[in-house]
Amino acid sequence: MQALYRKWRPQKFSELLGQDHVRDTLRSALAGGRFVHAYLFAGPRGCGKTTTARLLAKGVNCLNLQNGEPCNQCSSCLEIQKGQSMDLIEIDAASNRGIEEIRDLREKVKFAPTKSKYKVYVIDEVHQLTREAFNALLKTLEEPPSHVIFVLATTEPYKIPKTILSRCQRFDFKRVGIADLIKRLDYIAKQEGLKLDEESKKLLAQTAAGSVRDVESLLDTVLGKGLTTITKKDIEEILGRTELERIEQLYHFLVKKDVSSALSLLNQIIEEGKDLNQFTVDLVEFLREKLIKNPSPVLASWIRTIADAQQKMKTTHITQLPLELAIVEIAYKKENGEKSNEVKEDDPDPKVDPPKQKVQDINQEIDIDWEQVVAQIRPHNHSLCFLLKGSQPLEIQDGQIILGVSFKFHKDKLEEVKNRRLIEEVIKKVTGRELKLACRVVKNLEKAIPEERDLIKEVTEVFEI
After folding, report:
1. Residue 109 in 3-state DSSP?
2. Count: domains in the chain
3. Whole-number Å distance between alpha carbons of 358 and 83
4. Which end of the chain is more exposed for a tag (fewer CB within 10 A), N or C?
5. Assigned domain for 344 exists
6. Residue 103 belongs to domain spanning
7. Smallest Cα–Cα separation from 175: which of 284, 46, 303, 6?
8. Is the domain of 22 the same as that of 167?
9. Does 81 map to a domain?
10. How far, CA to CA in Å, does 289 sit from each of 15, 191, 296, 303, 331?
11. End-to-end Cα spacing for the chain
């Protein structure tokens, strides 16, 4: 089965989505015969750079060009459309990045096209070429054969030497808007005989984050489930999305400064096997929509904090830790002398929940200076130190110290062999006693929140690991 993004790839400039400035300029240039020998297409992935390069190749070689649009009926158009043209050469610079490959290209460009008027070279991800390869390419761009057109495509134009940039006509592609992506879904759904409700189309468009290719690939995933009538719930189940109700619930917890409930909800999402990264993306989008309706520096601060956490989640050993720290930071951070959770718009019921029953602090009963243990852990492992700050020693029995924690994933992390051994070694150093560590998940376990300056310092140190 052919992928949708290949099956429904635009075959005319008029079908190009969300890049009107590129479409109109190129179509006008083709109609007037004013095209150049080298182009640079820059922009995010999946926004139509390679598709536009193929349309350009069609346009310069079309035997019956109509107002700058390829006819899609002549032999040249049909060969390119079917991927059979010998005169459209696509090169992936990621795997052909060296000087030898570019030298080989320089030799081949000397030969005339097989059938067409122009030989078109499309070099994708051109920024990945080596410096030597760029120098070799530059010589060709300076004195190109009259029958050759280059299209350099990149997601990172700032990595391309200025000497190369100066010899190309540049077009900057942009992310495609949600409205245009929904139009694309409507078109494909009609062609494929699918029924998508408005909420499911909006969800697919939002998840694609401005990429036409991604929205079509997501729809492909849905088709793989054999569905023909599709609802938002179907999309959420297939994509592993977390329901909007969970997002709203977390938002309310943040406004109420209910850290315990917020972290408990997060733990529940993880234990259900939901995609935590997607949940974080959804949360940012939810807050962004609120920000648009009612601009607020507090909401803007929340979005920055959570978006930063989402990036850190990709490189942190404890995946959920950056988001946990972001929740704590949002709840207790002060801005201009006010609580950061004072969000006016859509405030939830302001009633304060009754305080939860605290677990008895029995540090004195078991005669261990737990704060000293935590402090001794810090030089060895900052993230482990942070987890221990949220725990409580409960009891000692049979040579074992039982540590109370709020969440199962904290228990699992603390009981990892290397972490457990480190904690046991520090306990022996502080107390002179050999105690084995075991953890127990305790509901409603609460610890006194440290002073804000200490909390923010801890957050910073953990993120610097």
Report:
1. coil
2. 4
3. 69
4. N
5. no
6. 4-172
7. 46
8. yes
9. yes
10. 30, 32, 12, 11, 20
11. 46
